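Hello again, I could really use a second opinion on something today. I've been staring at a protein lately and its backbone has me curious. Please have a think about how the structure follows from the sequence. I owe you a coffee for this, so here goes:
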Amino acid sequence: METENISYEELFRTAFDKTPFHYQTQLAETVLPELINVPTGAGKTAAILGAWLWRRINNPESVGRRLIYCLPMRTLVEQTREVAKSAVENLVLKDRFSVHTLYGGDVSDDWDIFPEREQIIIGTQDLLLSRALNRGYAMNRFRWAFHFGLFNNDCLWVFDEIQLFGDGLATTSQLQAMREKFQTFGNAKSIWMSATLDKNWLKTIDFAPKVDELKTLSLSSEDKQGEVLSKRLIAVKDLKKAGIECRLPKGLAEFVVEKHENETQTLVVVNTVKRAQEVYAEIEKLYVEAEKQSKKSDKPTLLKIKSKSLKSNCFTRVFVRLNAKNGRKYSTNNLTKTAMKNL
């Protein structure tokens, strides 16, 4: 499609099938901030992708030709990749923009063949930051310098969910300080995003003097009063204690299936990978049994297991998407959480 003469709102709506929020439009049409502090569910991913695509089309000098989207966990990479691919396809710009991923088990090995192309590179902090440090993981050491150059010149770094980065967060700000100190080819900036952002996290030996001057983008009063976001911000979230039978995989599976609503996403949170697998197996058994009695029941079509460490405890989040058809996304109306002692 012709993208050079359309408004940002029209481009955003074509790419994401949504009308942009005010802060998303600001990100595209005004000076790029260094910090984005907006609540979860306010569309940070679409905001970044839309703004970068818009700038590359209408004002390419304002932003680097490579968008490097850095995330703390691989499951977030998968979600972001699908959003980016869908946006590029919807805009019919696959010949101009390409999407690549760099994370454990899926390392694109052909993106660097065309360094002159405009690319969206999405990956985990270990693979991306190691390349920026000239010590690229999962690659031949004789190519380290090649990626070192590409990841420090003519690029926009975006760090999402920075509260989960750990020690890698200090590396991100220190690298940006060095780029500014030693200069780079092309535009090389960094944006840090979080729903719980504290700019003091970015204070390193060389970046600390700049922290107080960083520009922050957050929800405007127009966004907060808008119909869509206001509902999300003030939404009532009921929390009820599940029955004692939910302490066992079979009981929890029966509870989940009973509470699940068709064409919605049900989220089950447990504390070990083993328990996640057990619950999922029990859910499958229930649907197999139901299928024998009626062909109308659908099996769960997607299971994702996400783990993160928090102090000395380990929590595993299990996403079970039921009745998801043709890749359609549904809101998470049901949340089941089991609080069990770590074994």
Remarks:
- Confidence is low (pLDDT under 50) at residues 301-317, 319-332, 338-343.
- The first strand starts at residue 35 and ends at 37.
- The radius of gyration is 22 Å.
